[in-house]
């Protein structure tokens, strides 16, 4: 059984002080929680302080991106080793904002996913179709391409450790979430492809989480769909109480 996985992506919000305050509050609120994996992705500048504030707690820390090289003349970039040294244990890779605004491709996603594993980070690899692609009935083709190219060369063991975030681009930051049926259909497709291409066991271990306008009001229904193993939450993760409600919705037993 996969433990539900809820990650908050803060994007370019929150100072170091904001991040530390939030993490300190959240760690207290989830201190007795072992039924949900909880992860926060602050900006690079807040990574070290957030990881220190989360030390020995149930809160994991993720970077929002990484570079694929260990070190070198790559002005402005941060390597997986540097992120790991800062105390993070996850890295988001291929977020749709990185793809659409900063030229990220399936090929760069592939290098970054491999680099994250090499640095001892668990990648949270984002995939998902645009509205145009959905309307042209290309959703499954797009997901297949993003999986085959973005995850090319990974071992079965790595697939088993991976988190895939299915984030339909039209649902990110728009307030328009996928319906539970749309999410369930896409997640079922991703799981069946993982089974077909990487084998039964890694496909069962891999977390496939949903992202796109998840909020306290829609979390429970989305998270109860088969093959939806959690959520990547943008806007609603900025407020600790609303994020906590989403975490509570992921519990399979009772509310927090
Ligand atoms: C995201 O940033 O990955 C995201 C899903 O954002 P939002 O929840 O705001 O749609």
Topology:
Elements: E1 5-9, H1 16-29, E2 37-41, H2 44-54, E3 59-63, H3 80-85, E4 90-93, H4 96-102, H5 106-118, E5 122-127, H6 131-135, H7 139-150, H8 156-161, E6 163-166, H9 180-198, H10 200-205, E7 207-211, H11 216-223, E8 230-233, H12 240-250
Parallel strand pairs: 1-2, 1-8, 2-3, 3-4, 4-5, 5-6, 6-7, 7-8
The protein binds phosphoenolpyruvate (PEP).
Phosphoenolpyruvate is lined by residues 9, 95, 167, 172-173, 211-214, 232-236.
Element pattern in H and E: EHEHEHEHHEHHHEHHEHEH
Strand order of the largest sheet: 1-2-3-4-5-6-7-8
| Number of domains as seen in the coordinates | 1
**Binned strand content:** 5-15%
- Strand segment tally: 8
Most strands sheet:
8 strands, parallel, barrel
Question: What best-fitting shape do the alpha-carbon axes yield?
Answer: globular
Residue ranges: pLDDT <50 for 5 or more in a row? none
CATH topology group: TIM Barrel
The radius of gyration computed from the alpha-carbon positions, rounded to a whole number of angstroms, is: 17 Å
CATH architecture: Alpha-Beta Barrel
Ions, cofactors, ligands: which are bound? phosphoenolpyruvate
Features:
15% strand; 256 residues; binds phosphoenolpyruvate; eight-stranded parallel beta barrel; alpha/beta; TIM Barrel
Structure, described:
The structure is a single chain. With 256 residues, the protein is an alpha/beta fold. The protein has a single domain, classed as Aldolase class I (TIM Barrel, Alpha-Beta Barrel). It is built from twelve helices and eight strands. It has an eight-stranded parallel beta barrel, surrounded by seven helices. Helix 1 runs parallel beside helix 2 and helix 11 runs parallel beside helix 12. The mean pLDDT is 96. It binds phosphoenolpyruvate. Phosphoenolpyruvate binds next to strand 8. The site of phosphoenolpyruvate (PEP) has 14 residues, from strand 8.
């Amino acid at each position: 059984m996969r433990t539900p996985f809820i990650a908050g992506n803060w994007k370019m919000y929150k100072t170091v002080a904001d991040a530390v305050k939030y993490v300190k509050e959240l760690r207290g609120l989830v201190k007795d929680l072992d039924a949900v994996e909880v992860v926060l992705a602050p900006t690079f500048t807040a990574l070290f302080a957030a990881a220190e504030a989360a030390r020995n707690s149930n809160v994991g820390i993720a970077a929002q991106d990484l570079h694929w090289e260990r070190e070198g003349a790559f002005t402005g970039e941060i390597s997986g080793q540097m992120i790991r040294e800062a105390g993070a244990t996850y890295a988001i890779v291929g977020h749709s904002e990185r793809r659409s605004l900063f030229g990220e491709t399936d090929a760069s996603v592939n290098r970054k996913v491999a680099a994250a594993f090499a640095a001892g980070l668990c990648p949270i690899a984002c995939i998902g179709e645009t509205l145009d692609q959905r309307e042209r009935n290309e959703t499954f083709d797009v997901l297949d391409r993003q999986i085959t190219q973005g995850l090319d060369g990974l071992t079965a063991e790595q697939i088993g450790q991976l988190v895939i975030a299915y984030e339909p681009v039209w649902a990110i930051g728009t307030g328009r979430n996928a319906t539970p049926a749309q999410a369930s259909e896409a997640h079922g497709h991703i799981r069946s492809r993982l089974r077909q291409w990487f084998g039964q066991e890694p496909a069962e271990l891999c977390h496939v989480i949903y992202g796109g306008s998840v909020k306290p009001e829609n979390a429970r229904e989305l998270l109860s769909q088969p093959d939806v193993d959690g959520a990547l939450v943008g806007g609603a993760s900025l407020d600790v109480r609303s994020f906590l409600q989403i975490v509570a919705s992921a519990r399979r037993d009772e509310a927090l």
